[in-house]
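Practice problem: predict the structure.
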Amino acid sequence: MNKKDHINYKQALEELEKIVDEIENGEIDVDLLAEKVKRATVLSQICKSKLRKTQEELDKLLSEIEKEENEQQDTEPEPSS
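Answer:
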């Protein structure tokens, strides 16, 4: 990835969708097709990477929340009857 590939997920997805639309509608000149497919591949990798990173962060946060809840349950006094 080069510097211009430091774009956010939304930007990458929008550009990828535009390329796909152009390909599906036959709007891309054959001479540019290979270039657009290469760019689409890079954009797809950017999106996958950002989604994977976000999933890992969410998993970590959820694990921490679950751990805190379990610790709270372990330290709460049991109700007396």
